[in-house]
Every structure is written in C-alpha cells, then in structure tokens.
Amino acid sequence: MAIRVHLVDDHAAIRQAMAHLINGEDGLEVVGQSGSLVEARSANPGSRADVVVIDVNLPDGSGLNLVSELRVASEQLGLVVLTMLDDDDTLIRALDSGASALVLKTAPAEHVFSAILHAHRQPGAFSAEGLSAALQRRRSAPADLLTPREREVVAALLAGHSVDQVAARLYMSRSTVKTHVSKVYDKLGVHNRAGLAVQAQKHGILPDP
C-alpha cells in the first residue's frame, strides 16, 4: 500500500510540481494539498495522510505551528518540514515542534522522498542534514537549549522518577516522554542520566544544589 502524502505550500506551482514528482515515485501517493494554515486545518490532513509535508513560510503563519498541532493530535503521523532557510534556528525549531524530518527546498527530490519514508517509519525520530553540527553549535552558545516542557522532563528524571512516573506527573503519554528524552539527549550530547545531570548543571538547566 502506498504511503499517502498531504502537501502544504502556498505556491500552487510548487505543490503541483512536487505532487508530480511524488506520484511518480513507487510507493508514494499525494492524497491532498493545502495552500495555507487555514486550508490545512480545514482539510485535517492527519485523517487521510500518513505523512504531511509542510512549508515553513505560509501566508497566514508559520508552518511549524501546524507541525506542533498535528504532532499533539497524533504521535504516529509523519511530519516533514520544507524550508528555504538553511540556518540552525529553523532546524532546532523544527525539532522542537515535533517534526519527523527537515529538508531544504533546494535539495534533490530524492532527499524529499527519503524524508517522507523516514517520517512514515519513524515519525518521532527527527532527521535533518546538519543536525549534529547545529546541535554542537547550540550547546556552546549561551541561548536556552531546552524548551520549558523539556526542562520539566529533565527535572523529573533527575529527581529519580521513571519514564512512567514522569508521564503520570506531567500528564503525558509514555511515548511522548520518551520522545522528549531523546530530544534532550540529542541536544545535550549525552546518552544516559549521569551525562544528563552533568550537562544540566553545566548549562544551568537546573538550579545549583
């Protein structure tokens, strides 16, 4: 069965060209298109599509807002962000929004196909070219590394709570907590709670004891 794709981009010509390319790829099928946030919300793409491909810059707001809304509604929906902006801030915001992947509009079509396949198979695992380098630069910068929700998860983990306990305390599903933990580990470059504690203290994520 083909992976069903919904496209969200305000340029009709770009949507049509992308739909033509995607429909020409084995195993992929475009089942819907929207040109704005309003149209996308009305279409409710998560009800028909397996993967939604969303442009960051839409005429009535940021496509990342739509990504966040769709991720809250479904943890299984694949969400691919398309952008002309090749910068760390856009990449990190896409990661924080719950996107499955980010692809530059200037990338070859094969990169878009790969992102769609990844988003379908692993919707909660963010993939983007240059992610490791962007996170490394962000770790060395004084700006906030984590979202407020991620800080809450870190605090609960370092207080000794299990993933299930964190989920209950913060009113999240277990899989959502695990997604937050995975993002935090990526951002801080750690692999376990011991490393998390060291980096949390280093970056001032938690108050001094």
Describe this structure in words.
With 209 residues, the protein is an alpha/beta fold. It has two domains: 127 residues, Rossmann fold, CATH 3.40.50.2300; 59 residues, Arc Repressor Mutant, subunit A, CATH 1.10.10.10. The protein contains ten helices and eight strands. The strands form two sheets. Strands 2-1-3-6-7-8 form a six-stranded parallel beta sheet, with helices on both faces. The chain has a two-stranded antiparallel sheet with strand order 4-5. Strand 7, helix 5 and strand 8 form a beta-alpha-beta unit. Helix 7 packs across helix 8. The model has no long low-confidence stretch (mean pLDDT 89). InterPro entries: CheY-like_superfamily, NreC/VraR/RcsB-like_REC, Sig_transdc_resp-reg_C-effctor, Sig_transdc_resp-reg_receiver, Tscrpt_reg_LuxR_C, WalR-like. GO terms for molecular function: DNA binding. One of its GO terms (biological process) is phosphorelay signal transduction system. Pfam families: GerE, Response_reg.
Strand residue percentage? 15-25%
Mean pLDDT: 89
Name of the CATH homologous superfamily of the largest domain: Response regulator
How many β-strand stretches? 8
Q: Count of helical segments?
A: 10
CATH topology of the largest domain: Rossmann fold
Distance between the termini: 55 Å
pLDDT < 50 runs, ≥5 residues: none
The SSE order reads EHEHEEEHEHEHEHHHHH
What's the short story on this structure?
The protein is α/β, with parallel strands linked by helices. Helices cover 51% and strands 16% of the residues.
